[in-house]
Amino acid sequence: MNILVVAATREEVGILVDSCQLSVISNEPLIQTTDNSQQSTDLLITGVGMTATAFALGRHLAINHYDLAINLGIAGSFDRNIPLGEVVEVVQDTFTELGAEDDTRFISLDALGFGQTVYKTDARLADYYPENGLWQVTAATVNTVHGEETSIAKLHQRSAPQLESMEGAAFFYACKQAGIPALQIRAVSNYVEKRNRDAWKIGLAVKNLNNFAGNLLRELGNED
To answer: Domain range spanning residue 39?
Structure first.
């Protein structure tokens, strides 16, 4: 099985890089390894945001084929039932800012008839890792992460997502265009509220994310 792991930043997957002894290809945003003769795993670092993610994936997938793509990253949670540090599977992601304003009303790109904003992945983690135990959640992909009560309330009026990131829907979009099964796995680093870095658990989220990702890649290797 050929697998592409995608992350916005190296910091989010640094533990995985070290534990799998991945090597960096000089001057390229790509980290690559071959675990064994049956499984090849590439790690693509795209940069932060939906534009960087879509471009990096579009360029890479135009000349490379994979059996599965996995997006790894941390995220903020609107849902306080999800503990900080929890690893979850995003099964639906939305470009929540694509559309138009009509006075106080927001009109989505879908309603305007100009495209699609909601992406649901056909692949499920359980198809590859049955005993994974992760929550399945919905997410919003945004250009500006939320930190103000009014903007948070407006977002919830539109779609009421559980998480937010800056890349997830772009990852799903690019994989759909390339015809590649896609999984999005994230760990919750903070709750979405007025910006309060003292309450964030980035270290815990990164640790839990990388530990889970390592177990997942080993499970995928055992399937071959």
So the answer is: 2-223
